[in-house]
């Protein structure tokens, strides 16, 4: 029998970008790069039984964007690529600064966590799904990089969506706590990663 919570072994940090970074990824996550080609600046993990996903992404540092606006800037950029920019298709419900002493990534100048929702369709389908997006942004101006960590957590799936079959009830879903653990354990091992 598996123990849950309390007495379980500490979760292992998983190497990211060839070991240049590492972080605790929820157990059982599927590494999407083993299934299909993904961009070199991304690490993508999917929940084995639901449409939840986690993306760690290295993007260009946006010097013109103030630290407190960076998460919203990147959230709107994600909304654009999700074709969720029309009025009412995306909304920000929370933004907090992350406390640096709680973060393993000491190199960041600031870190932020945004929570919002976007109405997105998968594979250009008509059907739109409401997805809660938790977005962590680590600002690394000295490396001209922002590190984005996105947790996509679908809330309502249109019955016409190809994702409808993927939602199995009573499976152990990833939680906000899993996401926060990833944010807190993100560690830089090789600054050369940033070129």
Automatic annotation (TrEMBL):
The keyword Kinase does not apply. Keywords: Guanine-nucleotide releasing factor, Protein transport, Transport. One of its GO terms (cellular component) is nucleus. Pfam families: Mog1 (PF04603). It comes from Iconisemion striatum. InterPro entries: Mog1, Mog1/PsbP_a/b/a-sand. This is Ran guanine nucleotide release factor. The lineage of its organism: Eukaryota, Metazoa, Chordata, Craniata, Vertebrata. GO terms for molecular function: guanyl-nucleotide exchange factor activity; small GTPase binding; sodium channel regulator activity; transmembrane transporter binding. One of its GO terms (biological process) is heart contraction. Transmembrane segments: none annotated. Belongs to the MOG1 family.
């Amino acid at each position: 029998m598996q123990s849950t919570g309390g007495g379980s072994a500490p979760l292992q940090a998983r190497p990211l970008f060839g070991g240049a970074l590492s972080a605790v990824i929820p157990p059982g996550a599927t590494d999407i790069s083993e299934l299909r080609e993904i961009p070199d600046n991304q690490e993508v993990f999917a929940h084995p039984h639901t449409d939840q996903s986690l993306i760690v992404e290295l993007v260009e540092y946006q010097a013109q964007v103030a630290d407190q606006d960076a998460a919203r800037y990147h959230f709107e950029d994600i909304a654009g690529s999700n074709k969720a920019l029309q009025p009412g298709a995306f909304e920000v419900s929370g933004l907090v600064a992350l406390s640096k002493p709680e973060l393993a990534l000491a190199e960041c100048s600031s870190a932020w966590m945004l929570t919002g929702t976007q109405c997105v369709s998968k594979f250009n389908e008509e059907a739109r799904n409401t997805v809660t997006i938790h977005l962590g942004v680590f600002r690394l101006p000295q490396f001209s990089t922002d590190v984005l960590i996105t947790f996509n957590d679908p809330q309502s799936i249109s019955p016409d969506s190809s994702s409808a079959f993927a939602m199995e009830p009573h499976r152990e879903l990833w939680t906000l706590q899993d996401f926060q653990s990833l944010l807190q354990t993100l560690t830089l091992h090789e600054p050369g990663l940033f070129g």
